[in-house]
Amino acid sequence: MSDRDAPAELARPVADGRSEPALPDLPAPRWRWGDPLALVVVVFLIVVSAIVGADLNRRGVQMVLPLPPLLSTWFPHVGWGSPLAVLCVLVGLRLQQRAGGLRFRRLLLVGWLLNLAWMCSLTLIDGLRAGWINVLLDPNEYLSDLPRITDPFVFLRTFTDFIAFSPTVGGDLVWTTHVSAHPPLATLAFWALQRVGLSGGFWAGALCILASSLASVGLPVAVRELGAPAAARRLVPFAALFPGAVWMAVSADGLFAGVAAAGLGLACLGAARRRPLVSLLGGLLLGTAVFLNYGLVLLGLVVLVAFVLTGRTAGWRAVLVPWLAATAGFVVVVVVHLALGFNWLTGLSELRVRYYQGIATQRPFSYFVYANLAAWLISSSPLLAVVTVRATAVLVRGRRAPWSQDRVVAWVSLGGVAAALVADLSAMSKAETERIWLAFGVVASAATALLRGRTAQVALAGSAGWALLVNHLLKTGW
């Protein structure tokens, strides 16, 4: 059963009980030589980044990248998570075949459970202790600073005083690397987990995995509610086996990506169904994401795309109230933090000082302006370059074609790509983009829904296989 044979999924109920037809699922225009050229460019970019990075290391440039462009080391290995990960790929391929015949909610549930299993299995390739428990116990991670928090309100009020080194704030007083690099809400999330009795690396890792898995639900929901239900179905298996899970599992950056994707999905759901309270919750989560990670403010580009798409599809008057509710939710997060003593702009300003007090001064922007992209494509797999080219072709070559589901997907995906490019040019993302751009990779991967039939099956197997290869050959950092 295909998407075209599932009429119940080709109409979206709105608030008054009527059915609103979905956009047509037309074949997407594509550039004939786009796929092979994209793969050639990716391979070239990765190889050049590796060669130039190795040369910089040999010349003594302090980049702290043993295997550029990644923060990783060469470490071929297998673990008892290996057969589980292979099993996840087989289940994902089967899910892809059955996606058209399942109710959307059941499809989402199966995709979410598969994503949880995928992240756990990838983590356990390195072993329970090395791959899960010890990761967040690193001295540069959030848990190391938790003993300093005796009062969360004092922590919020004084947080910006200890981000950067100064004559009065030395190395024994500044926050550790990850704590200082993010707003205080990120650290407070782990502090709250500890306060309820779930302390230590295992439970912190479990929180990250659970929150990260929200991305496998939030993005398909957003795509569906923007008028592309058939595309959302095709997206679910790709979201479940997202290659970036190698870095998402047991990682706070995965947690941030999951919260952001969930917020986007709820905001789009509330706007499409005319449910302001759902939009409000989406706005609260989007605001939370920005107060977990400064860089996620760039996902405002994707939110803007979603706003325009819902207005174009459902009418500006119909979606205005839900989007105002989402904005109100975002503002609530800002106001609460200000009332408790934390100013986001001050924190960002202090972070910039701290950033250039450290290794960023040694990392040459002329190298990382392209090596960042190489690391991101390794994390999200070279498939991301292929579908980005296809998304561009949909918008450029399909301008005179009817508005379709593929055009919705292309706009969402290119919004994620644009966010990554802005981050790249900001010079605040020198290296480690395989991890810190995970949220952008999640959104950009929406373009995998442009793939159909046999091509989609090969792409899913290839991208998941790439993740397995990376996880088994490298020991990744953070």
Number of helices: 22
Instruction: List the uncertain runs.
Output: 1-21
Strand fraction = under 5%
**What average pLDDT do the residues reach?**
93
- Structural class determined from secondary elements: mainly alpha
Q: Report Rg.
A: 22 Å
H/E series, N to C? EEHEHHHHHHHHHHHHHHHHHHHHHE
Major sheet: size, sense and barrel closure? 2 strands, antiparallel
Cα distance spanning the termini: 43 Å
Helical percent range?
A: 55-70%
Shape: globular
Number of strands: 4
Widest sheet, order of strands? 1-2
Notes on the protein architecture:
The structure is a single chain. With 478 residues, this protein is an all-alpha fold. 63% of the residues lie in helices and 3% in strands. It has helices at residues 34-58, 82-98, 104-124, 128-133, 152-158, 177-180, 184-195, 201-212, 215-225, 229-240, 245-248, 252-273, 276-290, 300-314, 316-339, 344-355, 365-380, 383-397, 405-425, 433-436, 438-444, 453-473, and strands at 11-13, 19-21, 72-74, 474-476. The strands form two sheets. It has a two-stranded antiparallel ribbon with strand order 1-2. It has a two-stranded antiparallel ribbon with strand order 3-4. β1 (11-13) and β2 (19-21) form a beta hairpin. It is globular.
